[in-house]
Amino acid sequence: MTQPIGIGVIGMGWMGAVHSRAYQQVPVRFDDAGVRPRLVICADEVEARARQAQATLGFERATADWRQVIELHDVQVVNIATPNN
Ligand SMILES: NC(=O)c1ccc[n+]([C@@H]2O[C@H](COP(=O)([O-])OP(=O)(O)OC[C@H]3O[C@@H](n4cnc5c(N)ncnc54)[C@H](O)[C@@H]3O)[C@@H](O)[C@H]2O)c1
Questions:
Q1: CB-side exposure of 19: number of CA atoms within 13 Å?
Q2: Is residue 76 over pLDDT 90?
Q3: CB-CB contact of 36 with 67 (8 Å)
């Protein structure tokens, strides 16, 4: 049985997009993994970047506030792809 796993990505620059595309590939590359990533929410402090990522990568929601990502009960993985500082 395939289990959905909720993903939230914070920072929708280069690496945020790379990681999001990697999650999309899990069912193709690891069809026996038993999990199906679900792109629940993406966040970027530049709101237009978050909205664009939602549109192009298929996230269910977008936000300019990273706190919303860690508050959602249907997010099991918080993927931080911001600069280190
Ligand atoms: N680009 C690479 O090839 C690469 C490879 C390995 C590791 N990294 C690391 O990945 C991290 C991100 O790099 P990148 O190239 O994707 O940078 P980027 O500048 O393309 O993207 C970073 C994004 O994070 C957003 N952001 C910053 N602070 C935020 C906050 N508080 N809340 C929400 N969003 C915020 C920015 O608006 C930006 O869109 C860095 O730590 C970098 O060292 C990058």
A1: 19
A2: yes
A3: no
Output the ligand 1 site: residues, CB below 6 A. 10-16, 43-46, 49, 66, 81-84
- One CATH from 3.90.470.10, 3.40.190.150, 3.40.50.720, 3.40.50.12780 for 3-80: 3.40.50.720
% of residues, the chain, pLDDT over 90:
94
Which letter does DSSP use for residue 83 in this model?
-
The tens digit of pLDDT for each residue in 2-27 reads 899 999 999 999 999 999 999 999 99
Ligand 1 atom nearest to CA at 64: 33
Give 80 Cα–ligand 1 centroid separation in angstroms: 9
Q: Please give the number of the atom of ligand 1 that sits closest to the Cα of 18.
A: 16
Cross-strand pairs, 80:
10
pLDDT band per the 50, 70, 90 thresholds, residue 1: confident
